[in-house]
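Human:
I keep going back and forth on a fold encoding question. Comparing notes only helps if you start from a blank page. Show me how you would write down a chain together with its backbone fold. Write it directly below this note and I will take it from there.

Assistant:
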Amino acid sequence: MKPYPILISAILAAALMVSCGVDEVVQTSAPAAPAARAATVVPSRGAVETAPAPDDLAESPARFRQMAFDYWDAFNRYDVDAVLAFYEPTRGLEEEKILRRDIGLLKTFGATLLVGEKVPAFRNSRGEWEMLLLMQEPTGLRTIHMAWAAFDGQWLLIDASEVKE
C-alpha cells in the first residue's frame, strides 16, 4: 500500500478543518483550554475514570466534556474494555462487536482520532446530557453525537454516533 493516499487524506482533512473554523490542534489527553477548539486525544498514563454519580454532574458540562475526551482517549489506546465501560450495559452489549472491529482496524493501521468540541455539553428536556464533537479520522471529518443518561447513580453513555449533516 502506498503512503500517498493516506498523506493526501491527511492534508485534505487538515484543509477541511481550517475551512470549518478549527483554529488549532492541541495535543493533549485531557480537554484543551476552553479557548482551544480541537484536541488530539493521546494515550493516557492512568486508568480510565469510572462515571461519576448524577448528582455530582447535575450542572457540570465540563465534566461531560472530560468524559467524552476520556472515551476517545480509550479508543486511541485501542482499549475496547475501557471504551465499553463508558456505556450503559445493554447499549454496550449492542455495540461491542462493532467497537471491537473499529478499534481493531485503528490498531492495525496505527491510526488515532482527533476530537474537538463542536457543541458544548447541555442538558436536554429528558434530563440527559448531550454534546457534539468534531472528529478527524484517517478518511475525513465527522460530527459525533454523544449522550449520557443516569443509571443506578452513574452517568453512562447511551449514544456515540455519527451525525449525518
